[in-house]
Amino acid sequence: MPENAETRLAQHAALAQHAATLAFEHLPASAVNCAKVFITDTLSVGVAGSRVPEVQPLMSALGQSGGQSGGQPPVGLWGHGRQADPAQAILLNAYQVHCQEFDCLHEGAVLHAMATILPVLVAQVQVSSALSMPTSGRAFIAAVAAGVDVACTLGLSANRGLRFFRPATSGGFGAVAALANLRGFSPEQTLSALGHQLAQTSGTMQGHTEGSVILPLQVGLNARAAWLSCALTEAGFPSLQQPITGKFGYLPLFEGDFEIEALLDELGVRWRVQELSHKPFASGRACHGGVEGLMALRAEHGFDAEDLVAVTVKGPLLINHLVNRPPLAQPSANYARLCMPYVLAKVLQHGDIDPTHYDVQALNDKRTFELAQKVKMVTDDNPDPNAFVPQTVTVELRDGTTLTKRLEQVLASPSRRLDKAARDRKFKRCWSLSATDMGCPQAMLDGLERFDELEDVGPLLGFCVAG
């Protein structure tokens, strides 16, 4: 056996045990509430993602590649009023959750865990419903909590900056844990499924560097892989013993430098679903400090875009790595969502940033490009490679005035949560952006508010995803 094999086996046993045995009764009320909040947010963002133009060629490619459902019932495509093979629907729905950079995340783990987890769980609910096997809201919430715990534990264990795209890679393992929990897998089966996931894990930061839609596609691919990972386990296909911390397991290979032991001790003590952050603004989370700071300075001092000489956003290495890219006269939508100068230019023009600000006409706006060239980013001396804060926004005006706003925490982080009114506004805005008419969102909001009381969440989720 390899050196430290006993330790590694114990680490895997702890992770698989937690994922398989977590039950609703273990969760404090605060964690249940957060799970409901982020289930609601993720569903709405996924529905809104149906509007992006890349969805059509993706659906075409999935249709051409066929689907092997194994006789399983079809699953709804969010916001389209159509259905597809479960695995293909999971890929598309997960893509839609992340494709507009509007979905929630865990800042410490640098990870959008719900983007992979929720499409997989909703697919399971729909398949089970078609087979007259209802899923309770409590079981669903427990599965969400299990998946978020596993994904974020992996993300938080990393001591290096991003090389691989964690929302896809760690997120895929989280989706496996969530689905294994909902299907009632034993710890041994859960570990088997995690092993199958390692065989399929993929996704580098090159898509982020280029501002390409390959980035959200990677989320979809790993979410789909989770479905197959669990199917392989149920079929009895042999797997691995040490897929996470083994010599060539996920953490040594994908993250390199990591520490997981203390994080495993926190399983069942700290609930990572309580540590998720909303995205109140439709852009990469690393842009949010700049957006909030600029909006606050304008509200306090009342200057116009014409008064502006320059905007400087100073922050940790991570936010510079993620969104410090030069403005382009005609950027792609995904490039623009991850470009601080573009995002702040739109804020200067419109007072906010909306998903429609990445439509073709908006992307080609000459005034946006002019304003974007007045924005720059600089790096502070924060040694943490995964830090989002603090961030400082400095505005220089034509009259010689210099204005500064420092943010220790960005809006919608766990210490500064969005209130219900703001969450509902975002939900309704996303609902209105669906590719098909989804009707009045209030009934959906009301149902999600009492999600944990439902003995069968199938009808509610079916209404959302099928249009």
List keywords for this structure.
60s Ribosomal Protein L30, Chain: A, two-stranded antiparallel ribbon, 2 domains, 21 helices, 6 strands, 467 residues, 52% helix, 4-stranded mixed sheet, 2-methylcitrate dehydratase PrpD
Write a structural description.
By secondary structure, this protein is an alpha+beta fold. It folds into two domains: 5-280 and 428-466, Orthogonal Bundle (2-methylcitrate dehydratase PrpD); 285-411, 60s Ribosomal Protein L30, Chain: A (2-Layer Sandwich), CATH 3.30.1330. It has 21 helices and six strands. The strands form two sheets. A four-stranded mixed sheet has the order 4-3-5-6. It has a two-stranded antiparallel sheet with strand order 1-2. It is globular and about 70 Å long. The termini are far apart.
